[in-house]
Amino acid sequence: MYRLRKALAIGFITGVLGALTSLTPFGASLERNQGLNFLFNFRGPLSPPSEVAIIAIDTRTGLNLDLPQRPKDWPRTIHVHLIDALVKKGAKAIIFDLHFFKPKSAAQDQQLAEAVKNAGNVVLVEQVNGKRQPISDETGKIVGTVWAEELLQPFPVLADSARGLATFTLPKNEAKVHGFLVFKESVGQAPTLPAVALHLALSTQTRPGLHSDGRNAEQLSQIMKSLRAHYSGNTNPVPPEQEALNGALHPALINMYQGSAYQYLNFYGPPGSIPTIPYHAVIKGFDPNLSEHQLDVAGKTVFVGYSDLYDPGQPDRFYTVFTNEHGVDLSGVEIAATAFANLYHQQSLQLPHWYWPPLGLLLFGLICGALSYVLPAFYGIPLILLLSASYLTGAIYAFNQHYLWLPLIIPLMITLPFSVLLGLFAQYHLERKRSQHFSETLNYYLPEHVAHELTTNNASADAFNRVVHATCLATDMAGFSRIAEQMAPNALAAMLNDYFDTLAAPLKKFGVSVTEFRADAIMCAWVADTPNKELQINPILAALEAANAMHSFKQKYNLYNTDLRIGLETGEVYIGHAGGGGHFVYSIVGDCANTASRIEGLNKHIGTKILATASVIDGMDDVLCRYIGHFMFVNKTEANPIYEIIAPLSTATDEQHALCDAFASAVQTFQQGQWKPAATKFMDILTHFPDDGPSQFFLQRALSYQDVNNQPEDPKIIRMDAK
After folding, report:
1. Does 688 map to a domain?
2. pLDDT tens, 206-218?
3. CA atoms of 5 and 9, how far apart (whole Å)
C-alpha cells in the first residue's frame, strides 16, 4: 500500500508538471514551434483544393507583359484586363490582395471601378492602421493612452464598386505565422478576406436571394456581421427569428459564423501547394508551362497578389512551417487562399477545449509516473515507451484524419522523460534505503565494512575469509550463571542486550574490526595486515573504558557482586565465515583468540579485571601495567607472560604505582624460589592493599610451596590446572 501511494504521488507530481507547463506561454510556444512542426512534416503535403487558385505576381510578370517590374508602377488598365479575363473564364469570386489606396489617372481609375462593378464578385483589401492615442481629462491633461485601429479603404470610386471590402492581417508568434483571423474583433467584428471570399463562394449555392441582399461592400459587411452576431455564442445554430435565412446557409458558412475569430492554419504544403497561375498567363490566355486544365478557373475563387515561388526576398512573405530549404516563404496571398480553403472544407486545425490538454497531461503523467515506480525498470520503461508510442500514433491519426491538434512535445519530451527519471530515482532511493536497511541489519551480525561490501559491491562472502594479524579481546561477565538463575528469560535477554550495548560502545569507539557475542561473553579483534602500534593501544584503551562503563551498568541493575573480566592477546587469526549445515557466522578463529579467552578466565583465579600478554603491552609506555608472572594454561605447552593493565599512566595514582613496585619485588622473590621471604612480602602488600587478588594468589602458592613435597618444577612458571 505504501508503494502504491508513493507511485500515485510520483505520477501526480509528473502529471501536474505537464499540466502546468501546458498552461504557460513556454508550453504553448513549445507546442506551436516544435509539436506543430513535427505533425505537419510527418503528415506531409495535402491534396491541393480545387475550389481556389492564386493569380501570382512575381519578378517575371512585368517583363512578360512589357511593364515595369514593380506593380505599383503599372497602369490600372492591366487589372481591368485581368478582371475581364477572369470573369470570362467563369471565376466565382475575385479576391485582390493588392492595395489600391491612392488614385492615379482618373480615366484608368474609372475603368477599373467599372470593371470591378460589372464583375460583381470582386473583393478588395482594406488596411488596418493602428496607433497609440493619448487620453485627456476635461482639463486637457493626458491621463493615459489607448490603442486604436481604423480601416483604410481603397480610393472611394473603387471602394464603392467593390462587391466586398475586407482586411487581412496575419498574427505572428515568434516571427512565425500559425493562424489567421476570420473576424477582426478590434475593428467591430470586420470580416477578413477569407471570410468574405467564403460567403461569396457559398451563399449563392444555398440561397440565390442572399447574394442580392448585399450588392455593395457595406451591405455585405452588415449582413456578415449580423450573421456573426446571431451564430457566435449560441448553443442553437438556428435562432427562430432567422430560421428562414439561416436554414439556407451552407454548413461551412454556419461553421465559420459559429467558430472562433482566430483559427489555426492547416497548411497544404510548401509554397505553390495551392494551384498557382502566373498573372501574365491569364492576360495572355496561355502559358507554355501550364496546360489548359491548369489555366481553368471556372467556378473557382481566385486570389490575386504577390507570390514568387523562387525569390526568397519577395514582398509580402511569411515564415511558416513549410518555408522551404531555399528560404522561400509562403506569400500572404497563398496564406489567404489557404485560410479560405480551410474554411471551405472545414479543415482548420481544431484544438480541444482549454481544460482537456491539462487533464490529459495530468492523466498521462499519472500513469507514466506510477508505472515507472511500481514496475521494475526492465518492464516499466518498455511499457511506458509503448504507451507513449500509442499516444504519438493517436495524436498523429487525430491530426491527419480529424485535423485535431493534440500536445506532443510536453507529454513526450517533458512528461515522459521526467516521469522515467523521477520513477527511476525513486526506485534507486527505495533500493538504496533497502540496501542501507539490509546493511544496517547485517551490521548486527557482520563487521560494518563486510556488510557494506556485500550490499553495495555484491562481493562474494568468501572474499572476506582471510588470515590477519590481530589483537583479540575476550570478555566475560562474572556471576552470570547466578544471575540467569534468578531472572525470567525475557528480562535476562533485555538485560544482556543492554550489557552488550554498554560494552560495544567503547569497542566501536576505538575501531574494533570484528565482534562476536557468545552467550554472556564477547570475542572481538582489531586486525591489520601487519603488526602496528594501533593494534596494541586501541584494544588496551577500549578495555579500560569498557571496565569503567561496567560500573554504571552494575549500578543500573544492582549487580554489585558482578564484574567484567577481560583478556588480551596478539597473533595471527582467521576471520571469516565459519559454520555448517547452511548456517554460518562471521567468526574469529585461531590460537590467539583461544589464548585471549584463557587469559580472560585467569582473571577469576587471581582476582583481576584486565589481563594481557607481554606482546600486547610491549612498548606501551603510556599505560600502567604490572607483571603478574608466567602462566601455562591447561592443554598448553608454553607459558605466557601475563600483565595486568591497571590504568592510563596519566591517571594512575601514587597508590597504584606503589602497589606495582611492591608486587614486582615480591614476584621476583617468588620466582627465585624463596618462598618464606616471598610470603612475607605478599603479606606486607596485603596489609596495605587487602583486596589485591594477585597478592592473595601468590601468597597461597608461597605458603603451599614451603612443603618440600609440594615443590613446583619451575618456580618461574605457574601451571594452571583449571580453565
Report:
1. no
2. 444 344 445 789 9
3. 6
